Amino acid sequence: MAASFPGPGDVAALRAAAAAGADRPGAPWPQAARVRDAEACGVPVRVYDPAPGRRGRVLVVYLHGGGWVMCGLDTHDALCRGLAGASGAVVVSAGYRLAPEHPWPAAADDALSVLLWARAEAGRLGCDPGRVVVAGDSSGGNLAAVTALRAPELLAGQLLVYPPLDASMGSGSVTAYGRGYFHTAAHMAWYWEQYGGDPAHPHVSPLRAPDLSGLPRTLIVLADCDPLRDEGLEYARRLGGAGVECEVRLYPGVFHGFLGLPLPAAAAARAGAAAWLGATGRRGQGDGDGAAGFEPASSS
């Protein structure tokens, strides 16, 4: 994968590579029954409904990865179909504006706009407005975390999959896994440059937010061999310390971007995330003691 993936610097080549490698989860899993394209406050969205006509379901706003530079509704179509089908939730995938043409805060503002639209449409979509989750992978995980910081009162949960959370990139896993594990530190630094914004601003680097209390129930999914691993672990520690119900699922032996690949760890991560989404907002879902659970997940 690393040998065929373009290096940082060529936006067109990176976008072409991402489009050619659109995610196709290998193991069969339930699919959304109805899929339609729409527009949310000027932002293209794709709505995945696994059971049209049902009421009171979870509503997920999904923000795709791609370094804020590439990917979109099509590259993450299979993942969103599967998440909707396996969780029973309605998934709204957001086609937010990309850098470098649209630097920060364009993507973050689009993410918030889609959340506001989705929550307003919850009843029409057969969802409970009290069971709204924001989710995303990689740069989309960053946008999900930022959206939760901006509107915690609108959310019942946040699902963050190997998110970049600190533009300073100063964690130990950057040194340990910055080369030779597909996603490189050089790529990540270049993505941050294209995205822009003040690295110290919490809506750029959520790990720098001074106060994380009041954020919703959180699941953080991490790859062990990932430059971004330690940022996710530190964010979980801070969430737990702030009294937020937070769980970490760390998958050993896999790398950044594994979620959409035909790997045993990916199948386990997708199924676990779907189950977590489906349970969001139910009574008795957790003990609410604010502990951050660190549980290595089996990759077999």
What fraction of the residues are assigned to beta strands by DSSP? 15-25%
The poorly predicted ranges are 286-296
The largest sheet is: 9 strands, mixed
- How would you spell out the order of helices and strands? HEEEHEHEHEHHEHEHE
Beginning-to-end CA distance, first to last residue: 21 Å
The coarse silhouette is globular
What class do helices, strands and sheet pairing give?
A: alpha/beta
Number of helices: 8
Overall mean pLDDT stands at: 92
Radius of gyration, in Å, reads 17 Å
Please give a structural write-up:
The longest helix is centred in the C-terminal third of the chain and has 16 residues, at 264-279. This protein has a nine-stranded mixed beta sheet with strand order 1-2-4-3-5-6-7-8-9, with helices on both faces. Helix content is 31%, strand content 22%. It starts with 10 loop residues before the first helix and ends with a strand. It has eight helices and nine strands. The chain is α/β, with parallel strands linked by helices and 300 residues long. Mean pLDDT is 92; it is low at 286-296.
